[in-house]
Design a protein that fits this description.
Radius of gyration of chain A: 21 Å
Order of helices and strands of chain A: HHHHEEHHHHHHHHHHHHH
Distance between the termini of chain A: 23 Å
Shape of chain A: globular
Largest sheet of chain A: 2 strands, antiparallel
Oligomer: homodimer
Number of strands of chain A: 2
Strand order of the largest sheet of chain A: 1-2
Strand content of chain A: under 5%
Chain lengths: 363, 363
């Protein structure tokens, strides 16, 4: 295990400590309202510390773009960022009907089970309702933390405003994602622009700006980075984020099942509308599309069906086009790194190490 | 209409203008992500300006506790407070399965209808999912506004932190409310404390501190009130809020249908667990409770049944006990007003006028 970036492991510990401390602090006042309050603070704490903490880690990396060590305040900021992300996941799991998250039942399933034990009416609905509330509470805890970071007042305000703004975009991108998932394709691509544009915009906001740019920017602001650096840091996050997401999609399609942890073709059987799929739709012939339609999103699709779709993605030039896009993003990222200067190269090395370490999906 | 407090009407206009402006500002960037983004900004704008704006009005009143006129910044803060409240209502309506809000379909129903027109899979689930997202987006817009109020940095931070903290409590109180509504009574009262204590705690956090104290405190902070005033203002809000909620419950039970806008007994037929009901449960005999159980929450209950419950609430001493509590709260409010000083008496007059003007429910 000598290739593990030691820093990141120690950061994760520090971030977990901050998370647990912030939520334990609130347990008493929450518990004074109702027994569910104390339960809520420990439930979201357990959930949040179970994450991979890529975003929290990126807050730490962000500080290193502008200074030589990670300041104390970064771990508390990272805890807030992880809590914001946990809140989004709690809500997303309701929308996606995900029963499992991080190896345990998702929060709405946990609450539904509690409700069943207490013989409430409509335990599934109560489970979802309590999970909506818990997500909301976690958002508010995170904003309270950001508003009270150990930093000058104007920086705290800047950070709160930045997080609030980017989360608006994430919320809208999530709406787009939910709706795209539920729409028939033709309706979606008729909505202006191509389906690929829509998919890439969602990647830009959900992965690029939110997962990468926002934590890096928060970290660099905490490290009192030169204002001139901030746009380059945002751009770096955007390119890296989209590139990461495209690679993740590619591995999901073409990676072997050992790499993805899922059977080959499961993204196709689940009907996951990645940019590879939206791009394919604009390139394939009607005859190919007709067979594709019968396979995509079909849990009964055979190994031959899956192999045919993968071959179609190659043959139609889809994979090549997206690999070209990936190369362009790599060039853009490299340009941003150059303009960040000396901290940039170190930062990108850390990001690369962190992502390699977290080689499976980053949610 | 000469008894309408003219100030409040003009405040509402100013707050509505700020709300519409803030959301229109975001329409373009939201729309650049997906067509649902532009739709979201106008949808939440319409929803928010349709409210009674009691909380926004209380921000304005809060400024008058410390200065002679309402500063510009108060209207923008009030818009943020109204937006936070709209977001909570959007989420609450999902939990309560409310199909109507402010005279039009609730947000999740609006989205479900849109989904049905677009022939999406599971339109009801998509409607709820998009409404969860829209509520989240509205929270974030509100926090961005609060972080950028025209006020010194330390005050903005203080206001963001205060709002974030009180909203955590509201979220926990909402969890309690949801769960209490779904639990059988005996389980709930076995959970420590009496059912009335639980009900009053929910009133304290959801109506007292959130609806009354928070907006008043935000206003007074914006008006740069003496720090010594802030605890008195919080206490004033707590007493007024619980008192208001108790009166609202009492009108819901004993008011005539013209006053409540609902048929007599509808709170009983709906099984609304107000503090009158939780108090009654600790006072009534087993025989009375047994008949009560067959009526409460029963949509088929007759006029005689309802009359019997109302008589039981009187006969058991429940109504008297709660009226005594109301009187104590009135004394506490009056003490808080005295310690606020000259602005206090003016403030309470404005609050009273505003509540009279908004004589039906304040949600």
């Amino acid at each position: 295990m000598s290739d593990i970036p030691i820093e990141f492991e120690s950061w994760k510990k520090r971030i977990s400590t901050e998370l647990a401390r912030e939520l334990a602090l609130r347990g008493e006042s929450f518990g004074a309202i109702h027994r569910l309050g104390l339960d809520a603070s420990s439930r979201i704490s357990r959930f949040a510390v179970g994450g991979k903490m890529v975003r929290g880690g990126l807050v730490c990396v962000g500080t290193l773009l502008a200074r030589a060590d990670v300041p104390e305040s970064a771990f508390r900021a990272a805890a807030a960022v992880e809590l914001l992300h946990s809140a989004l996941l709690v809500h997303d799991d309701i929308m996606d009907r995900d029963a499992l998250r991080r190896g345990t039942p998702s929060i709405h399933r946990q609450y539904a089970e509690m409700g069943r034990l207490d013989e409430v009416n409509e335990p599934d609905h109560i489970g979802e309702s309590l999970a909506v509330c818990l997500g909301d509470v976690a958002f508010f805890v995170a904003f309270e933390i950001l508003s009270s970071l150990d930093a000058p007042d104007h920086l705290r305000n800047h950070i709160v405003g930045l997080a609030a703004r980017e989360l608006q975009f994430v919320g809208v991108a999530q709406m787009a994602d939910v709706y795209r998932g539920a729409l028939r394709f033709d309706l979606d691509s008729n909505s202006g622009g191509t389906g690929s544009d829509d998919a890439l915009r969602v990647y830009l906001y959900k992965t690029g700006r939110y997962t990468f740019s926002l934590p890096l920017m928060i970290g660099s602001l905490l490290a009192a980075a030169d204002d001139g650096l901030v746009p380059s840091i945002r751009e770096l996050g955007e390119s890296m984020g989209i590139l990461y997401q495209i690679k993740d999609d590619e591995i999901g399609l073409f990676g072997d099942s050992e790499e993805t942890g899922k059977p080959t073709g499961s993204d196709i059987r689940e009907g996951k509308k990645t940019v590879f799929i939206t791009e394919l739709l604009s390139r394939a012939s009607d005859a190919d599309l007709s067979r594709f339609d019968s396979i995509f999103g079909n849990q009964e699709a055979t190994g031959d069906d899956i192999a045919w779709v993968l071959e179609l993605i190659e043959r139609s030039g889809t994979r090549g086009a997206i690999e070209n896009l990936g190369a362009e993003l790599g060039v853009a990222a490299s340009r941003s790194i150059d303009s960040i200067g000396s901290g940039g190269r170190n930062g990108i090395r850390l990001i690369a190490e962190m992502l390699t370490y977290n080689s499976s999906r980053i949610r």
